[in-house]
Design goal:
By secondary structure, the chain is mostly beta strands. Helix content is 0%, strand content 60%. Strands 2, 4, 5, 6, 9, 10 and 11 form a seven-stranded mixed beta sheet that branches. Strands 1-3-8-7 form a four-stranded antiparallel beta sheet, with no helix packed on it.
Length: 121
């Protein structure tokens, strides 16, 4: 089993910054993909940013130029630096990872519990 634990959420003013972290622990051979999703009240969960093991990344159009995703493979941790935050960024942010637990195993998907980000206007 693998656990994903997010941290770094909170309340911030319009234009402020936050840095989210998500640490994976447990039975891990490798992590192929790590990503951040978010879900606002009454809306579907949406992809915010994604990064694969080689370092390539992609972003939702709404956050391009403001958010940066990065990962530390040695620590099995993914980060999301969020700058110039807007009220519409308010949501619960979820960490997602595609993990191979053993060399002979296939990949499995895991989700974190979520961390609240609230941006006041």
């Amino acid at each position: 089993q693998v656990q994903l634990v997010e941290s770094g959420g909170g309340l911030v003013q319009f234009g402020g910054s936050l840095r989210l972290s998500c640490a994976a622990s447990g039975s891990i051979f490798s992590i192929h993909t790590m990503a951040w999703y978010r879900q606002a009240p009454g809306k579907q969960r949406e992809l915010v940013a994604i990064i694969i093991i080689g370092g390539s990344s992609n972003y939702a159009d709404s956050v391009k130029g403001r958010f940066t995703i990065s990962r530390d493979n040695a620590k099995n941790t993914v980060y999301l630096q969020m700058n110039n935050l807007k009220p519409e960024d308010s949501a619960v942010y979820y960490c997602y990872a595609v993990v191979r637990e053993r060399v002979e195993a296939g990949f499995r998907n895991y989700w974190g519990q979520g961390t609240q980000v609230t941006v006041s206007s």
